[in-house]
Amino acid sequence: MNTYMNTNMNTNMNTNMNTNMNTNMNTNMNTNMNTNMNTNMNTNMNTNMNTNMNINNLKIYMERLKKNNINNHKYKFSQRWFIGSDIQINLEIFLDKSKENNILEIGCFEGLSSVFFADNFLDNKNSSLTCVDPFLNINNNDHCEYLQNNEEMNFDFNISTCKNSDKIKVYKITSDEFFKNNNKTYNLIYIDGSHNIDIIKKDMENSFNCLEKNGIMWMDDYRGGDGIKIKNTMDEFLEKHKGQYKLILSAYQLAIIKI
What we know:
The chain is globular. α6 runs parallel beside α7. It has helices spanning 2-67, 86-94, 112-121, 151-161, 175-181, 197-209, 229-240; strands at 102-106, 128-132, 168-171, 186-191, 211-219, 245-250, 254-258. Helices cover 49% and strands 15% of the residues.
């Protein structure tokens, strides 16, 4: 009996141990395989989703760029800074082209942004564009290194050539001088003037004061320069006026809607 019992016990123990080991191994293998399969499936799904999103975003970008294209053969310019900018690509999302638009532009350079506004957003009979830029009429223009040749003449040519040119008013003075005498309000203000911190502060405050409710204030160079000084200055403005605007874009450029 003892021999038989021992044999059976050993046999059963070995059989159970082998069965459990095999079961555990199979379970672990299956678990690992399932985990790996799920991980790979999730990774592939995420990769495909991200790829598809990037492709879709690129398509949207190209469609908008083509739709709001600036005619390279029609206008004269030496710099392409405005081409492909945030405002060129995205403004149509926020501004109705068919309605009355009264636009103020601080800083015009060669007028590529000016003709973009005129060609695309001034078709309503009551729309207007006001351009403010001192060009070389002041000694401390921080763009003077780019204004040594035909840039101002390019601006004059471009705004005289664009569509709706009769709806454009030009003030070749500083923004400070302009705001001192301005009593008009605007539903879009584009600030692309001096990079001097004190002037940026004044331009933003003065612009916000004459911005209509639900109007858009759009700033260039938010992440420009050293990526710190201009951004910090604009962030201080946002903090000061918290609750008075809605942020609609924060990229290289910055845009808000007054509420």
